[in-house]
Amino acid sequence: MSDELDILLSVAARLEAAGIPYMVTGSMAANFYTTPRMTRDIDLVLELSEEDIHRVVRLFQDEYYIDRDMVQQAVRNRSMFNMIHSALVVKVDCVVRKDSEYRREEFGRRRPVAISGRRVFLVAPEDLILSKLDWAKESRSQTQLGDVRNLLRSVQGLDTAYLNHWAERLGLGALYREVSP
Hints:
The chain has helices spanning 3-18, 26-33, 53-60, 68-77, 101-108, 125-139, 142-154, 160-169, 173-179; strands at 22-25, 41-46, 64-65, 80-85, 91-96, 111-115, 118-122. The protein is α+β, with helices and mostly antiparallel strands. A 5-stranded mixed β-sheet has the order 1-2-5-4-3. A two-stranded antiparallel sheet has the order 6-7. Helix 1 (3-18) crosses helix 3 (53-60). The longest helix has 16 residues, at 3-18. The protein starts with a helix and ends with a helix.
């Protein structure tokens, strides 16, 4: 196993044991659904409240650099904080789930999958496509758009009605049509 995969499984197990809902997104999720590509970090969406701040810090402070003030700020602003594994120097980006209709829907659609025999919650492929389109909308990142094309080609049984609906609602319709086969 790679260091990143070891870290992912360890972080997921700790979050699960603590009862903190999460989902893997970004390149690690794309690697599950389609042709893997090199990634430099792990992206997670966490459902956190003010009451979870101390618990999250305590959960990871033994093996990770984690800044309590950054966690608190991320929870309050529904933004991002990161943790860095002290020995392996693998970065875990933790996005606090936003409270919009779409982000609640996306999180509710997360799915348990088996990775190396362990249960991990992963973003649904349709929502990963929408997130990658959103990340690429300003930058036109060829890496993100390439991931979207790979997902559209590789994942069987995509819910295209769901994709079309949310792409339009999120202002991503033109970009979605541009990259669709």
